[in-house]
Amino acid sequence: MRKNSLTAMTTTTILTVAMTFMSCNRNTVFYRYEHTPVTGWEKDDTLIFYLKAAPDTGLYNEEIGLRTNGGYPFMGLTLIVDQTVLPIDTTYSDTINCQLVSPNGNVKGSGISNYQYRFNLTDIRLNEGDSLHIRIRHDMKREILPGITDIGVKITKY
Question: NCBIfam families from the xrefs (predicted)?
Fold first, then answer.
């Protein structure tokens, strides 16, 4: 009798946790990462993301994700983000200065040997059916950046 109670309790707990995670992501309309070349991310290599159609009219939050490994030699990273909203054909450009290490030397990302970072980009108003083209490139003095493994975009509706 007790074994059945524990099984039922465990099943209920797992379902509750799963439903909580699913409800937290309900407002996410786009979430994708692109890999950078293993040999290093070249300055002219632009990563492209494409939201085909906004599900509703409203305000959306945009976030840039970044993954690095131990080969990244700098404390920060500067990204240029160009976005075009279609069909109105309006382009927005942003520069993001990503601080990866605090002044006292602590890594700001989560992880052990590979780190993941999140940086807020902007809030953008989209109409239902609008498409969004996002282009991301780095703006560092070094032409090829080793140690950056992935760049991502997450778009969430408020």
Answer: GldH_lipo
**110 residue type, one letter:** S
> Which helix or strand (DSSP H or E) is residue 3 part of?
helix 2-24
Closest residue by Cα to residue 133 from 73, 65, 87, 74: 87
Query: What domains appear along the chain, each with residue ranges and CATH number?
Result: 28-157 (2.60.120)
Note the pLDDT tens digit of each residue in 9-25: 455 445 444 444 444 56
The token duo for 153 is: 């975009």
Positions of E strands within the chain: 28-35, 41-42, 47-51, 58-68, 76-86, 90-99, 110-111, 115-126, 131-138, 144-145, 148-157
